[in-house]
Each structure stands twice: as structure tokens, then as C-alpha cells.
Design brief:
single chain; 0% strand
């Protein structure tokens, strides 16, 4: 049993080393002079919301006063307990979620093309993509939006290809977290039917697998709606 992790490491030694190298390069690009960019108006608003919510539990849903979802503010609250500088506390959240976006792009590319070279190239392009470099260094919701969008797409692809209950649960939770980050993440749910382009229509038991996919997709959507209803806990809803 204990030999399984070692066997996995030996089989994928080069892949693991390249992954570590990617992560190092990512942080070398994202972390230096993180506070050199002047604070943006929305950053100031979100930072203040997080400070208020951290010190007053009755304002944990303060972002709803402006029609914004609360998840990013909650992460900023946790970060502010670790870092004294509130702007750094907010921006480091985006840096971390940018890393998850990069990893998600690797998995999406590898799943779609079954080619690790393409997967590493995709992740490398993301690291140096100027648009991502800006948003991954600012205390804004967009990095989290990208993370949950990419991972929702990945699990959507897995669901349409493997049609598993566990994948549907994970997809629902991922899309739910995305919906609690920003309304634009509902786009992942709306795009779910289009993943049928990847459905294997040639394989046996076609109708049975299609019906199962529909049921699991509905389950994932129900999970999203249940998670999104957390906002009803606040009178600000």
C-alpha cells in the first residue's frame, strides 16, 4: 500500500518535476512587487468590505449591499488574519487562485488532447499571458471567476465522457462556488448542454448513458442552486 505513491512518482517523475518548475516560474512572475500597482477603486471597496465583515459578524454578507456575491470577501477575511497589509491580503488571494487556474488549464488541455506537451504549453502560455498577469495580481474577483470556470469546464468534460455520480457532485460544488463568486460564473451552467459535442454517440447503451448524463447534469444544477441560496441567510438578500 505504501509503495503506491512511490511507484506513481517513479512513473511520472518528469511530469512532476515539470509541474514543480511551472509553479516556481508562476510565482516568480506573479509575486515580485505585488504592491507596486496603485490600488484600484474596486480593490479599495472589496478590502474595506472584508475589514468590516472580519470585525462584525453581522456584516459577513456586506457585498450584497452592492449586488456582489460574498465568497471573495470571505477569502479576503481569512487572508487578513494572516497578513497585516489589507491590500496584500487581497492580492495574494488572486495570486493563489491564479495558480489553480493554471493547473486547471493543464488538466483541461491534457483531457481534451491527451498530450502532456500541449498541456504544459497551455499552462506556460497562461503564466505569461498579459491579461492574466494583471488580474492575478489585483484584489479583484476575476481570478477566482477564472479558476471556477476552468475547473467547471474540466468536470463538465469528465461528466459527459465518463457519466459518473462523483463527477456530477464535484461539478455541482465547483459551479456553486463559482456562482457565489460572481454571477458571470453561471455561464458554466448554461454551457453544460454544449458539452454533448464530446459525447460518445457510437458507444453501446447510447440512450441509457444519455439519460444518465441528463439526470446527473440536473443534479449538478440543483447543487448549484442550493449553494447559491446561502445568500438567503442574510436579510441583505
Amino acid at each position: 500500500m505504501y509503495n503506491l505513491p512511490m511507484a506513481f512518482i517513479k512513473r511520472n517523475k518528469i511530469t512532476i518535476l515539470l509541474f514543480i518548475l511551472l509553479i516556481v516560474v508562476y510565482f516568480l512572475v506573479r509575486l515580485p512587487k505585488l504592491l507596486v500597482i496603485p490600488i484600484f477603486t474596486d480593490e479599495a471597496i472589496y478590502t474595506r468590505w472584508a475589514q468590516i465583515a472580519l470585525n462584525d459578524a453581522s456584516w459577513r454578507f456586506i457585498s450584497l449591499t452592492d449586488g456582489k456575491q460574498p465568497l471573495f470577501i470571505w477569502f479576503m477575511m481569512l487572508s487578513m488574519k494572516l497578513f497585516k497589509d489589507p491590500l496584500f491580503a487581497g492580492r495574494i488571494i488572486s495570486v493563489i487562485f491564479g495558480l489553480f487556474t493554471m493547473v486547471g488549464l493543464w488538466f483541461v488541455s491534457n483531457e481534451l488532447f491527451k498530450n502532456k506537451k500541449n498541456a504544459f504549453l497551455t499552462a506556460l502560455i497562461y503564466i505569461f499571458y498579459p491579461f492574466a498577469q494583471v488580474y492575478d495580481r489585483m484584489a479583484l474577483m476575476d481570478s477566482m471567476v477564472a479558476t471556477f470556470s476552468i475547473w467547471a469546464f474540466y468536470f463538465s468534460v469528465l461528466l459527459v465522457r465518463k457519466v459518473k455520480l462523483s463527477t456530477a457532485y464535484t461539478l455541482g460544488i465547483t459551479m456553486g462556488l463559482g456562482a457565489l463568486t460572481k454571477s458571470s460564473n453561471f455561464f458554466s451552467m448554461y454551457c453544460l448542454p454544449f458539452t454533448l459535442l464530446l459525447f460518445n454517440f457510437v458507444k453501446t447503451n447510447f440512450w441509457q448513458r444519455l439519460l444518465k448524463w441528463v439526470m446527473l447534469s440536473v443534479l449538478a444544477i440543483v447543487i448549484v442552486q442550493v449553494m447559491y441560496s446561502i445568500r438567503r441567510l442574510s436579510p441583505l438578500f
